[in-house]
Each structure stands twice: as C-alpha cells, then as structure tokens.
Amino acid sequence: MKMLRSKLYEAKLEEQTQAVAATRKSMVKSGDRSDKIRTYNFPQNRLTDHRIGFTLYSLDRVIDGDLDELIEQLRVADNTEKLQNMSA
Fold first, then answer.
1. Distance between CA atoms of 35 and 50, rounded to whole angstroms?
2. pTM for the whole thing?
3. Distance in angstroms (rounded) separating the CA atoms of residues 54 and 68
4. Rounded Cα distance, 62 and 58, in Å
5. What is the mean pLDDT of the segment spanning 4-30?
6. What's CA 52's distance to the chain center, in Å?
7. Alpha-helix runs per DSSP H in the chain
8. Is the backbone of residue 31 left (phi > 0), alpha (psi -120 to 50) or beta?
C-alpha cells in the first residue's frame, strides 16, 4: 500500500509540476526583440502597446504622467481576456 501511495503521489506531483511549467511558459516570451511590450516613437508622438494592439498618438501627455487612457485600455484588455478564459 505504501508503494502504491508513493507512486500515486509522485504521479500527481509530476502532473502539477508540468501544469505550472506550461502556465509559466505561456506567460514568459522568448525575450527576443520581436517580443516587444511597448514602443515609444518620439518623432511621431506615438505609443504602441503590442500586447493589446493599442496605439496612442499623444506620447507627450503620457510622458507628462497622463496615463488614464492607456490604463483604461489595459483594463479593458485584461477583462476581455478573463472573460474569454472563463468561457473556455
């Protein structure tokens, strides 16, 4: 019985470890330059968040601390992702 319990425990532990590794891998990108989160283009006064596909043409306001529009778009994208995960 002890052997069976030990093998079941090891199998369950391995399953959990693989699940955590898969989740981590889906969250972490490769670190390549193509895995950009955000681009700041000063000559065009443009900020682009590549994760949510949002472009804002008022980089000067963002630099001055007016982050409301960017934060709102990030919230919308986060809520949309959560809703999609709940339905899946």
1. 9
2. 0.59
3. 14
4. 7
5. 88
6. 10
7. 2-27, 59-63, 68-87
8. left
